[in-house]
Amino acid sequence: MFLGIGPEIGTAFYRQRDADLSGSALAEKYTQSKMSTNASLIEEFDRYISYTELDKVDCSELDFYDLFYWESRLSGWAAGGYSEYELAIDVALPFNSRRIFEAMLSLPFEDRKQKEVYAKALRLLDSREH
User: Fold this and answer.
1) Whether the Cβ atoms of residue 71 and residue 6 lie closer than 8 Å to each other
2) Residue environment code for 47-57, b if the CB has 16+ CB neighbours within 10 A, otherwise e
3) Which tens digits make up the pLDDT trace of 48-73?
C-alpha cells in the first residue's frame, strides 16, 4: 500500500494564507472546532512560535504554514497512523524524503495547489511504460 500523506506538505495543505503569523492563526489551522478560540491553545501556539522562532522563517524559501504542517501534522497524527497501519499491511511512503518535500515546496504556489507534481509524476511513469 502506498500512502500519500507526506506529499500534502508540498501541495499546499493550508490554502488560506494569513498575512501575519500568530497563535490564533495557528490555532485556526490546527483545528476547525470551537477549540480554535480557546485562550490556552492560542497561548501555547504563541509560545510555540517564540520557542521555534517560526516567525523568523525566511518566507522566500519556506512558508511558515508549510513548515507548521510538516512539523505538527506529520510528526503527530501521521506518525501514529503509520505505526498502526504497519500492524496489518506493508506500508511504503514514496514521498517521505526531505529532498522531495523541499523540491515540491520550491514550486509556484498555484502549481502546488493544483497538485501539478502528481500530474507530472504520472506522465513520467506513463511514458516509461510505453
Assistant:
1) no
2) eebeeeebeeb
3) 999 988 888 776 677 888 888 888 87
